[in-house]
Design goal:
Rossmann fold; globular; six-stranded parallel beta sheet; 6 strands
């Protein structure tokens, strides 16, 4: 049985060199299901019950998407709006997702330097992702630090290889349940974990 559900949303996947590399690097990994929302729901007609059944089967969920105007692409927002129903995902009787782990895996055109209080975007990535964190909290899920590949507009081939290797290691650590709460509390991004930062090409 698969353990990690990657909810992938990119409306122009065929033009995204970085996301293609990231997704292709994990798509055949045992224990991982990559669920391409734009491929399945080109008409935006989401099968809510099917999506809820998928969520129930996986203890770890990843929202994988590019950062679009400081949020996610519209289909992922619609997925959140429709699938996480009141009294199913949250509310007095909504506790089926409680204890599941969830995180964002994102790509941004801008570099890490522009996503800070001194940068041109004024705020950190984690600040922009607060609505996702609060959504997870409302549903009783454990929200993990995001995995981020930043500066994709100028990323080199070597940097992209490193990023895909880091993503693979992050997925493996999640599959093997080797991430302690103490480890996660120490990092702003999952990429900051020593196991990911010390990867040698």
């Amino acid at each position: 049985m698969s353990k990690i559900l990657v909810l992938f949303a990119h409306p122009t996947y065929e033009h995204s060199r970085v996301n293609q590399a990231l997704i292709e690097s994990i798509s055949k990994k045992k224990g991982v299901i990559v669920h391409d929302l734009y491929e399945k729901y080109a008409d935006f007609n989401i099968d809510v019950k099917y999506e809820q059944e998928l969520l129930l089967k996986h203890p770890i969920v990843i929202w994988h998407h590019p950062l679009y105007w400081y949020s996610c692409p519209p289909l992922m927002k619609q997925w959140i709006d429709m699938v996480l129903e009141y009294n199913w995902a949250y509310g007095p009787n909504g506790n089926v997702l409680k204890g599941k782990k969830i995180m964002n895996a994102i790509t941004t055109g801008g570099s890490r330097e522009v996503y800070c209080t001194e940068g041109s975007n004024n705020y950190t990535i984690n600040t922009f992702l607060k609505p996702f964190e609060q959504t997870a909290t409302l549903c009783g899920m454990d929200y993990l630090p995001p995995f981020s590949v930043m500066g994709t507009n100028l990323i080199t081939d070597e940097e992209l290889i490193e990023a895909t290797q880091q993503y693979n290691v992050a997925i493996d650590l999640l599959l093997q349940e080797q991430l302690s709460d103490n480890d996660l509390e120490q990092c702003e991004y999952l990429n900051d974990l020593p196991e990911l930062k010390d990867i040698e090409l």
